Amino acid sequence: IDFDHHQPPPTTNGPEKATQAEKPHDLTPESLTVSLVDQATKVEPRIFKAQWNPQDSDNLIALGLDMAPRSYKVVVQKDSAIELKNRVSVEHSGLPINKDAVNGALTFASWASDGETIAIASDCGDKGSVTIIASKEGQVKRTFPLSNHPSIILLRWNATNQFVLALTSPAIDGSGSWVSIFDTFTGKIVELQLPRASEDLDAVWTKEG
Q1: Could you tell me which residues are beta bridge partners of residue 191?
Q2: Closest to 126 (Cα-Cα) out of 107, 102, 104
Q3: For a tag site, which of 39, 45, 96, 207 has the least CB within 10 Å?
Q4: How much is the pTM?
Q5: Strand partners for 89
């Protein structure tokens, strides 16, 4: 006898009705599309990562596929007409980075919490570097070279904005990822290789940094 023949299919308790009834908020009317075309060359860079300065909402850092990090000053103003129309002005300045490697690539960027400094990771084969740049002056403060390391996939500043943690992807040979700590004040580097490879990696500083 098939006792389950007339039984309803198994179900699960989903979210509450109020949650199901919520409609997504359309951000299109409140969004702006900013053109980053270089006015001098009329070339639009291919950007794969962008981050706003945590202390300056007009300052945007963007990493391009051409090994060129760019700093943008994006100012949004509104007309005084009844129908407010947004006007966007963009000022672009290039940031210094190691461009010696033709086949190199930028992999990650991270602002210090005070918005004064940014760390940018670059990679070329088994060689890479982390460059510390003063955001206002656009000058390189320090460059930390790395050799025989996989690509850096994460950069994190500590609470005091003195140390930068870098995490690499697992090595091709199956060995673990590398964790590097850069002292931006003294230039010292401390490195540790993780014991096993993993694709799902992340790292955070403790509150004390």
Answers
A1: 180
A2: 104
A3: 207
A4: 0.75
A5: 75
Cα 166 to Cα 62: distance, rounded to the nearest angstrom: 19
Q: Are 61 and 118 in contact (CB under 8 A)?
A: yes
User: Residue 164: is it exposed, middle or buried by C-beta count within 10 angstroms (0-12/13-18/19+)?
Assistant: buried
Q: Are 186 and 173 contacting, i.e. CB atoms less than 8 angstroms apart?
A: no
CA distances from 35 to 32, 113, 129, 165 (A): 10, 27, 30, 33
Query: From CA 5, how far away is CA 120, in angstroms rounded?
Result: 63
The candidate with the shortest Cα–Cα distance to 49, out of 114, 109, 8, 3, is: 109
Name the token pair of 141.
């403060």
Which residues face 51 on adjacent strands? 61
Q: What is the pLDDT of residues 135-172, one digit of tens each?
A: 888 888 999 988 878 888 999 999 999 999 999 888 77
Grade residue 176 by pLDDT with cuts at 50, 70 and 90.
confident
Q: How much is the pLDDT for 209?
A: 67
Classify strands 139-147 and 69-78 as parallel, antiparallel or unpaired: unpaired
Mean pLDDT of the chain: 78
In single-letter form, the type of residue at position 162 comes to Q
